């Protein structure tokens, strides 16, 4: 009877060790995925920052162009 108990406990121990190993592997997989997601977030943030910079530069160029046109137009138009 005690030998059966030892065998049963040994099997339970083996099963628990397998479950632990599987859980550790899954945790490692999710840690890796999280790391990849964080890297992608950093890349996306940098892309957004560059796009924002280009947007501001384009807006500034547009205002300079409009100002240039206004100055040229006012120089050409003769008041009554």
Automatic annotation (TrEMBL):
<protein>
    <submittedName>
        <fullName>Os12g0505950 protein</fullName>
    </submittedName>
</protein>
